Amino acid sequence: MTDFRPPETHYAQSADASIAYQVMGDGPVDIILVPGLFSHIEFMHEMPGYTAVLRRLSRFARVVTFDKRGQGLSDRMTGAPSLEQRMDDVRAIMDAIGSAKAVLFGFSEGCPMSVLFAATYPDRVSHLVLLGSFARSKDRLPDDVWQLRCDEIVQSWGSGDTVKTVAPSQATNAEVIAQIAKFERLSSSPGALRTLLVLNRAIDVTAILPMLQTPTLVLHRTGDARVPVALGRAVARSIPGAKYVEYPGGDHYYWVGETDAMLGDIEEFVTGHRDGGDAELDRVLATVLFTDIVDSTRSAAAMGDHRWRRLLDDHDQLAQQVVGRHRGHLVKSTGDGILATFDGPGRAVRCALAFGSAARQIGLPVRAGLHTGEIEVRGADIGGITVHAAARVMSQCGSNEVLVSRVVTDLVAGAGLKFAERGAFELKGLPGTWELFVASG
């Protein structure tokens, strides 16, 4: 295994349409994720945070994602699908995977359809989770404002402009904007999008909400820039016995921003508990990268505090940019280095090489060590043997080198990276001898 490989895409036949879906996990309950305005189940795995959310849910459930007809990898069509057709599509997927009863997790425009499905087929829905929900689409914007906004969305489609409302916390991140732009283009054409926007404008399930008998959890972010929080609160008030939870933040996408509390609330709602020990949920496979500025103490003394501080600021900014570009997570700065994690060892090695090259250009020689294994997630920090091992690997580095453990070379075989044997070492505090390799592009 080199980088993460997404689940295989399958197709369910719903009347005359083929509906693309993916399945992750094999837990005792099924969760069907009902998408919002647009989706592309394969490309979405390229978007930071998305796969991590699905993995977290798949620890206690079988998680199913799909593209509604007319979008993504599902059959294209003239016009836009009605709520009834979209219900048929969900039913077809459930039948295809042998799911008699499932949790429906509706997101944004997917919430009204989920409500209608749960009311129509109560025997097939165990729980209903609604995130960023509304009952009547016209409540979101007055008619004149909506028409202008509709025109703006269609005219700018494919540029990533929707980032301003779906992920405002990332609105200045050029890489994220480029990803969302591609996401838009892959999901739908501008003309098909306009048809869908007009159809969605007519959605109104207000009268259905009081009839729901399915246990329901309504979730919303207080500053949601796409669906005002007041609409989510109104949905929760209208559903008998519904539980309502509000989170800080303004991002609309469920995989952007802080997600831990939300995912814990969903697990507790569905299963009755939040993995009490946290041990399993907080241990994940990752490639850990440690870097260090060579001879930093001597350089600081030679430059003086003011100049050294400015150089360190440049170093930290550079680290953030390079790690982000390689889809890693910058855990923290260590003063004269960084600690970062990656879900793909190939990206981790390429990041270390790129960072070393960039650091040299600003006059900083760095060394980097990498190891892949299980880490313990402790809030914003990480721990465990893998972290210690990566630090020990780095300690064997020379200036401007990237040193990796044997497990890293095994995992990236065939990825186009080159490694030279450095030898076998005893690493302080770790058992046995460790074969280390110098990486190059």
UniProtKB/TrEMBL annotation:
Lineage top rank: taxon: Bacteria
InterPro entries given in the database record: A/G_cyclase, AB_hydrolase, AB_hydrolase_1, AB_hydrolase_fold, Hydrolase_4, Nucleotide_cyclase
Domain Guanylate cyclase: residue ranges: 287-394
PROSITE patterns attached to this UniProt entry: GUANYLATE_CYCLASE_2
A matching Pfam family: Hydrolase_4
CDD domains (alphabetical): CHD (cd07302)
SMART domains: CYCc
Protein name as catalogued: Adenylate/guanylate cyclase domain-containing protein
